[in-house]
Fold these 2 entries.
Entry 1:
Amino acid sequence: MVKKRVPDWLNSSLWSPPPPPPQDPVSRYDSKSATAAAASTTSSTAAAAKDVVVLDPPIPVPPPSLIRPEPPKAELRDPLSSSDENNNGSSAAASNSSSAEDMSRRAQLSQELSKKVLNMSELRRLASQGIPDGAGIRSTVWKLLLGYLPSDRGLWSSELSKKRFQYKHFKGELLMNPSEITRKLESSTSLGNDESKSESKGLLSRSEITHGEHPLSLGKTSVWNQFFQDTEIIEQIDRDVKRTHPDMHFFSGDSLFAKSNQDALRNILIVFAKLNPGIRYVQGMNEILAPLFYVFRTDPNEENVAYAEADTFFCFVELLSGFRDHFCQQLDNSVVGIRSTITKLSQLLKEHDEELWRHLEVTTKVNPQFYAFRWITLLLTQEFNFADSLHIWDTLLSDPEGPQETLLRVCCAMLVLVRRRLLAGDFTSNLKLLQNYPPTNISHLLYVANKLRAHSAG
Amino acid sequence: MASRRRMLLKVIILGDSGVGKTSLMNQYVNRKFSNQYKATIGADFLTKEVQFEDRLFTMQIWDTAGQERFQSLGVAFYRGADCCVLVYDVNVTKSFENLNNWREEFLIQASPSDPENFPFVVLGNKIDIDGGNSRVVSEKKARAWCASKGDIPYFETSAKEGFNVEVAFQCIAKNALKNEPEEELYLPDTIDVTGGGQQQRSTGCEC
């Protein structure tokens, strides 16, 4: 019973766009512990605030641009000010950009968000142009765009507490180490010892072990057997979490703040890996997780900050549901796998700029996989500075069809924007250019990408 | 004129996640070490001009992702490689044990024309850590494995301190060059570059 903790439905229905049926998913998940759990929903939800994210007095979060060591890109843009301020120059005409317009978009978004029932298509339209930083607007809008918050504001509070409780439950079950599981089995369990579980997550502690559940038991049902299989993936997660945005104090360094943020990323990735045994953890997931967690964790609303980890988990699952096939090795050669998506990008380029396509792929033999693999699997999080990536994600997440088609258009626009350099380049210079994409006016990039849509449609 | 084919040496770096592939490549190419590298996704690419026996070559170095999941995507990167560098961390047993998998996977995917004699070089990295006290794979053990796989050249390196990196890559270049002549048979008119072509061919037979 302990071994088969995760029922199959968790790997499908919950992760697809329509949320699971409203009947209490927890009780379907694990009848025994859930009954007890459901009884204490309210009290443990309140308690969850404490052990989800360790919150010292809120630490002011410096905008990423101020702490990034590379000045050239970072100075261009302060993510907490209006995102288009620096948008002068040649593309000003293209991208309708001015602080005034930014202010008005902020006002429009705020107004839209204050309605009782939100008009999602209007929200998508506004958000696709870029969400102004600050005031927690992006945090709320992303949750809406990802379907985590329903469009009816009246349902927000109950939906949030349900999901946040569910995540707490996942953590309790999945982040326990085998000693704790056996101990829990023995003491035939009440929820009273929640604190001890979360305190020592992942660490082996000494304890009395009986019932044949000991580390040398080779039985397939042994919780230890599962544990050793998990260890390798957890080590990989640890390695990569430590390498997530090493240039940002939010994620990296020795501060308690950075450590607690790393812990949150780690917890989410482990819970996800255990709930999705077909995919588990694939390198790069940390990079997709990071923007979500950053945005939710820097929300000015204290309750949202306290539950940033839980909210991030569900939004990550939702976002990945459209892309999970890219992470699955078995699907690499299928129509939904990463190779097929890269081929779509190639076709898109050929359709819009055959000369460039021919020069890249035929003349200089730059296989699109050499650069686009990272662009696509990491949703462009590595190609631009952090603030610019958030701006791109505003547009990606706003697409009602899901982010992929927009993503491919943005990638295609990236190629078109440097076409003159590419057409003059050979294999080496072209690949270096595309693997180290130059700082770019993001509004203009998104404008060009959107024009590709119009062009295709027309 | 010189054909580009002749002047280019393609080198692939393989090994488990976190053994220091990116650091080794950057130490060699840029003579810099940083502990701020992100995990490599897909493959990164750097080039370096190298001189060998009075001839200039461009070494094209491909730094790959370490997680097993990415192996099946390797074929695009591996093909046409002139030398394959296998890296492990002397402080992590598993990364040494996996060298065999990496080697076999490479041979399957790159399908070189003469797999028996395809040049590999093995690097045992991170020998600086804890003054060598946390080391778990002995040099003797590593050399024994290399010997059993057709005398693969072996170097112990520290990408962090730049120890042995230059020497190792010179050997990598030399071995990559040995692999070249075979493909050059299709381009006989390239011999006039520096007059060193014939000479290269003879060193190529020593292995």
Note: The interface with chain A takes residues 17-18, 35-39, 41-45, 47, 58, 60, 65-67, 69-73, 76-77 of chain B (CB under 8 Å).
Entry 2:
Amino acid sequence: MNEQGKVAELRQELVNSGKKDKNHAAKKNALKKIVANMTMSNNDMIALFPDIIACMQIPVLEIKKMCFLYLQHYARLKPDIALRALPVLQEDMQDTNPLIRALALRTISYVHVREFVEGTIEPLKKLMMDQDPYVRKTAAITVAKVYDHDKRLIEVSDLIDRLNRMLKDDNPTVVASALSALQDIWERNENIKLTIDYTSASKIVSILPDCNEWSQTYVLEALTSYVPQESGEALLLAERIASRLAHSNSAVVLTCIRVIMYLMNYISDQRKVEELSRKLSPPLITLLSKPPEIQYLALRNAILILQQRPEVLQNDIRVFFCKYNDPIYVKVTKLELIFMLANKSNISVVLNELREYATEIDVQFVRKAVRAIGKLAIKIESAARLCIDTLLDLVNAKIPYIVQEATVVIKNIFRKYPNQYESVISTVIGQIDELDEPEAKAAIIWIIGEYADRIENADALLQDYLSTFHEESIEVQLALLTATVKLFLHRPTKGSSLVPQVLKWCTEETDDPDLRDRGYMYWRLLSSDPVTAKKVVMGTKPPISAESEKLDPTTLEELCLGIGTLATIYLKPVQQVFRAARPRRLQDSPALQRKKEDLSRALGSPGMNLAFPSLLNTTVTTPGGTPLGGHQAAIEAADEYFKNLSLSDNSGGDILTSPTTGGVAGNPYVVSQNAPQQVYHPQAGVAGNGDLLL
Amino acid sequence: MLSGILLFNQKGENLIFRAFRPDCRPRLADIFRIQVISNAQVRSPILTLGSTTFSHVKHENIYIVAITKSNANAGIIFEFLYRFVGLGKQYFGKFDEDAVKNNFVLIYELLDEILDFGYPQNTDVDVLKMYITPDNLSSAIRSVSAPSSDTSKITMQATGAQSWRRGDIKYRKNEAFVDVIEDVNLLMSATGTVLRADVTGQIVMRAYLSGTPECKFGLNDQLVVGQVVHGIDGPIGNQDGRKATRAAAGSVTLEDCQFHQCVQLGKFESDRTISFVPPDGEFELMRYRAVENVNLPFKVHAIVREVGTTKVEYSIAVKANYGSKLFATNVVVRIPTPLNTASITERTTQGKAKYEPENNCIVWKIARFVGGSEFVLSAEAHLTSMTNQKAWSRPPLSMTFSLLMFTSSGLLVRYLKVFEKNNYSSVKWVRYMTKAGSYEVRF
């Protein structure tokens, strides 16, 4: 049936039910069909708009709700017709039934049409003071909703102040809703500050037991806006919320972990910090009995937490062993944790476990397991031999992708421990025919070149690869060039026939600029001074480590302030994934604990100048995280140090939170310009950029 | 927070599309269909494309998707998606494509109630059912002119401190059923060492109690929670030696526990009492984890030999490690076979074994497994020769079973006290059951 015919028929059903329609059953039915068409089959039902508006006043809640749903769906397309619904909504906002008042308020504020948004403001002010808490909590959230539609409207009104006053409501759900609305607003505007003083923080913690699970999460999230001024306050607060770790809702647990981790930055008693840390492991592990998606989230956060607080999870490596039926994303993350938690005393169990994984079916997982074994050899020196033996065992099974992966990691082991494990070269070379991936080929070619003096038939092996030089990928070609040059330097007689040929290919027969440049470089080097050439090419290499994946301190700090958020899934700088998000840093306060090295550096530095604090203010402008050399570093360290000593007045007053709009730059007690002044919390992404980030 | 909730069937048809913020555009449904449903490469429940993040869970034959546009709290997202699925089950019995299609109006109504501007609101089914009901159950509250005493009762409930319980519940017979259900997880290496043995337990309560009952719940006389072991990085798989002294009856050591929101967490933290006002009907009171003194109900001894390239010989012995008065039911042992298995010959001392070529395993079923007994399966798998000789990955053998009146952790319910102002007497029932979680033995 065509769309028009369908619309006409539905209209007929809607209008013609007439007086016989007891309880409006026929209307209900027609409306259901309309809603179904609108949402499920995407049929255009917009032609029915006037008829729907006519139905809105029928005093049946279900019909009302369906009409409102329709309104939300089509209002943006036909704002002129939608306007006719406005009086109905305005009337409903004054209904005696609180459910209807809230429903109408919710609905009017969902409609992204100017008149609706503007029409929300006045009734909203009244409903924020409604006698019914259900209406009040809806009203609190409505402020954030209107802000999303039109910032200006809110900023010129006193709604934020009113919202602020709602934090004193005696209903916990209303308070939590107001807090989440304030945070929502705050995320979208860089000029808004949200600070919570100790009294207020303490007060909102006390309502936690009376909140439902979601409200608890919102309250906990708000606590990261409290900047402890005294270590004792931070500790007390952390201890007071710690009981939330036993909540069955993982959002409550993870957010609670976030807040405790945050507060730990301000606690001076290291014993207490350790005590708190210990409380974090069990709930984190208990989340592993939740559905896989939540396990995944918990595991990703475990990786994060472990980098910040290595004492967490220390005794628990077994719980991360994979179950055969774990989804692949859980397995891969567990594997990372196993790698991180592996140490001298558990390495043999870990290797047995990894060897088990290397026989599984999922190729990606198997490869990661093999790679992990190789990386463990680099991480734990005393276990290198054991790791290599495990790898060789796996190589002997002759499964091509295992062999390739093992070849790559063995190359790295050779780099890390030169002249120690070369006895295995022959085994590795023996598998050369299994290799067909560029990375593995490049690895074996590197091994051949590096050890050309010990591999008897190095020239023949290289010759094999050189015969297909032009078909190889650039990665392999580069490796071949270097290896041939190394062969020549090791054993000039054997290499002399190959080198000119390869150099010619690289300089004359390639389109790749890197390959050509490197070719010319070797050529000139070899032709001008072979001794220097040997020194350059065969020189000692910088050491490698297995910890390359560690997050840099700034990213780590930022991610720890967002434990449980989506960014922790990616473990990348937040702005890289969520472009519009705003950077988050730890706020400075007298209680903020500095890393010990900062302090000692500051105390021992000759450049520390007590006489000119004002000078310090103006000279150090480098944002934290950028390494500064020598004198400059000392100044900065001193600056950081004195920042802690500065007195600050905590102007909290009796206002719970004080988001101030506009360019009011707060913090009169900031000593250094590089003190993080920006308000943290990520901003809601607005810009639509089509980039793929998988 | 959430910008929208979308439901899809397996074909990728969009069943429900509910936007909570203007940035949730209709075209996002197509993007999810293309990027996730019809993309076999997808291996993560979370996908961020540009500024949009899709988080999804699968249940029955539907995808439940949350759309977010910022660095949102992922804990809230997934916990909410599962809560939504739970609500669907409580409302419709089953939450699948048919249920969604038959109840979509109600689902929209629910979504409008449980999410406001994308922030999860009260999701407790008891309270929701007071004012959002299937339409054949037309309650007075569904009319716009419902008496204000009724509506304010609802609104107080939905925003109050006990959002999970109505105040006016009456039963002629006051009863409470407590089920202690444990999943015991085992991972045993080929050499017989226990790599991992732990228990995840839940205590499910069905409360049919009048009024506002305050319950107190007592576990073993000696309850240790979250005692962290100091010292060296624990010798793996060897906990028996470390903590054997505490294995004495009457004590249980839980690694951690988590409670339903009705439990007063502060009280538990201070003096280990579990006190609460329960929701009406069934709910999960508590969830816990134990790793010490885990009693493994079954010991498995597996000998699997590959004879040349054409044959695999199995000898699997399973012994019941519990009292002879108890018996496990529905015991199933799954024994993997190589992919190129042509035929199987098998013999068992008890139960029936059958080769399931589609799953590459021998399935050995024993309907009733009495404590103390031991049964053996011997089998031979004959393999077809393959041109590409690849080693067999030997996936672990796995078991499922259920065993009544037994807890692997040793947890016991000592008492359940009910205090109510009417002082009625109530009857309480306790049941214990241990099931296999992931019970795997490598060979």
Note: Residues 228-248 of chain B have pLDDT under 50 and may be disordered.
